[in-house]
Amino acid sequence: MAHILVTGAAGFIGSHTVDRLLAAGHDVTGMDNFRTGRRANLEAAGKSSRFHFHELDVAAPGALDGVVARLRPDAIIHLAALVSVPESVANPELNYTLNVHATHLVAEAARTHRVPRVVFASSAAVYGDSTALPLHESIAGRPISPYGAAKLASESILLGHAAAFGLTVRCHRYFNVFGPRQDPASPYSGVISIFDRRHREGKAVTIYGDGKQTRDFISVHDVAAANAIAATKPGLRSGVANICTGRATSLLDLLKIFRKHFPAVPPLVQGEPRAGDIVHSLGAPDEARAALGFTSDVTVEEGLDELIRVG
Ligand code: UD2
């Protein structure tokens, strides 16, 4: 069994990744500063004697290095980040610190203390508004936000370290991740988390545009599985892979599923299309299958059924 360090462990994707690793029998150390992560997300993990936790900021000088020097983990899964695109636009400096600089510190800690593997939370945002669907990793990244740019720069930093210092780096370009523990609080939260909350409250949802826009929605359980494979599977080579399903679902498709569970909810409200919105986004899942042996397991229907059941 391996010992894995997870940064951003109390976040949406982080906490599911921790749970997955613990269920597979690994030892897990989590780090989080609770800027956007939540203690409640680690309730299940906290019951395991194989889980340890440090309340620390990855970007703080020496913080990560100290933990890695002591633990010498088998892998680092780096999920700590400034996670909001609008926040990266409002505060590019903070985006640089929390996304680019923090990733450089992870790369350096791995180099200095000979951690053989790093898994990194990248994003479909590196593709910007490319319309060459489905999006393959080989097309040039053309980010249209400081967030997307930081994710692309971070991939390069890590892959440069991989080539120069012999570590294995896996960069995961997550598509539209959904599932339990996703925070619906902001208007820019993931659309599924917002729809879920509105239906529970018996309120109408707002659709920006005609609802025919599509996304490649992937369950957080699949994302956690991909992270666990990338951190622990022997013999992997460094590279970048989309973590997606390869299936397009429209907002109207989503609403149909919600309405099955909440038939009494008021009709939708139609709003103007959101500025900067892309119409379609779809990932090609082939590289993740070839490089990791990963394919998504959970359909959108199954994922929504679970979300609606457990909240
Ligand atoms: C995701 C990111 C966004 C940016 C973008 C890059 C999230 C949550 N958002 O946006 O920050 O990185 O990818 O491609 O990760 N919508 C509604 N009603 C609502 C909320 C959303 O109609 O109440 C629409 C929204 O206008 C969009 C679609 O739903 O057309 C999906 O929205 P989203 O914010 O969940 O995801 P996305 O891919 O637009």
Main attributes of the structure:
13 strands, 18% strand, seven-stranded parallel beta sheet, 311 residues, 39% helix, globular, alpha/beta, 10 helices, two-stranded parallel ribbon, binds uridine-diphosphate-N-acetylgalactosamine, Rossmann fold, single chain
Explain what the structure shows.
The chain has 311 residues and is of the alpha/beta class. A 7-stranded parallel β-sheet has the order 3-2-1-4-5-6-11, with helices on both faces. A two-stranded parallel ribbon has the order 7-10. A two-stranded parallel ribbon has the order 8-13. The chain is globular. It has a domain of 217 residues: NAD(P)-binding Rossmann-like Domain (Rossmann fold), CATH 3.40.50.720. The chain is 39% helix and 18% strand. The two termini are 32 Å apart. The structure holds uridine-diphosphate-N-acetylgalactosamine. The site of uridine-diphosphate-N-acetylgalactosamine (UD2) has 19 residues, from helix 6 and strand 8.
Task: Summarize the entry for a quick read.
Helix content is 39%, strand content 18%.
